[in-house]
Write a structure and sequence with these properties.
Distance between the termini: 39 Å
Structural class: alpha/beta
Mean pLDDT: 96
Number of helices: 11
CATH architecture: 3-Layer(aba) Sandwich
CATH superfamily: Alpha/Beta hydrolase fold, catalytic domain
Number of domains: 1
Shape: globular
Strand content: 15-25%
Strand order of the largest sheet: 1-2-4-3-5-6-7-8
Number of strands: 8
Order of helices and strands: EEEHEHEHEHHHHHEHEHH
Helix content: 40-55%
Length: about 270
């Protein structure tokens, strides 16, 4: 099992494929398996590194509180351990916040940046929502909790597709590495404290901002703010999908990311 010591924590990772390196950073309360619909597609042409962030999956429990900037330093440390000086960084949701901090604080390490369904800073509505999730998770069974939060992740269209919601719930309930409540709340506090708005202008890499038009967790206005403040960013909106776009519309997501990665390779070779 590939484990590496990064700063003060042991991280689980997988290093797959060959080619230009791409680091994939998962979202809040998830793990590297959140990229299951992407990695098999991209590992044929790129070297794909996926990992479990601290307090997630098979990585170690954190011994302290942390911020999204701390999580970004973990990501830098993983690339150091793999002897990778520069990579394209792809982040989903919380992972997108971590990717922002990576690109702001280590611009020389970022070849390209993909921010999927993410945000620039917390807001009162989002903060209250996540704190409510934490309160529910502390007292609900895992099935009750995932049923309660699913309407925030899935759109009304997905609820009309026979078996889709049940399949989504089943995948969540089959997770053998479910976070402890303490780890969940530590990670939540990092999510809520993130604020990169005034520093986004420091990002120098080409950037794709990708979002579903019906995302209510990371609404389109957040992506528009990202694009307005990151110098080399462009926005791509996937229609008729919400926060679960990685799983509900993987083909559209993969095509968008694929075009962006191909453009980076073309620009470098020209």
């Amino acid at each position: 099992m590939p484990i590496t010591s990064v700063r003060d924590v042991n991280l689980y990772y997988e290093d797959l494929g060959a080619g230009e390196p791409v680091l994939w950073i998962h979202g809040f309360s998830g793990d590297h398996r959140g990229w299951a619909a992407q990695i098999p597609v991209f590992q044929d042409a790129y070297r794909c590194m996926v990992y479990d962030q601290r307090d997630s999956g098979r990585s170690a429990t954190s011994r302290r509180d942390y911020t999204t900037a701390d999580l970004a330093e973990d990501a830098v440390g993983l690339l150091d351990a793999l002897d990778i000086p520069r990579a394209t960084v792809v982040g989903f949701s919380m992972g997108g916040a971590v990717a922002q901090e990576f690109a702001i604080n280590h611009p020389e390490r970022v070849h390209g940046l993909v921010l999927v369904a993410t945000y620039t800073a917390g807001d009162p509505r989002g903060s209250e929502n996540l704190r409510a999730w934490a309160r529910m998770r502390a007292v609900f069974t895992p099935e009750q909790y995932h049923r309660a939060i699913s309407p925030w992740v899935l759109t009304y269209r997905e609820y009309l597709v026979p078996g889709l919601v049940e399949g989504f719930l089943q995948r969540a309930l089959e997770n053998p590495y479910r976070q402890s409540q303490e780890a969940y709340e530590r990670q939540m506090e990092a999510v809520l404290a993130h604020n990169a708005e005034d520093r986004l202008g420091r990002i120098t890499a080409p950037c794709l901002v990708l979002v579903g038009d019906e995302d209510i967790l990371a609404p389109l206005r957040f992506s528009r703010t990202l694009v307005s403040r990151i110098p080399r960013a462009r926005l791509e909106v996937i229609p008729e999908v919400g926060h679960a776009l990685l799983w509900v519309k993987p083909d559209e997501v993969n095509r968008a990311i694929g075009r962006f990665l191909a453009g980076l390779s073309g620009a470098e070779s020209s």
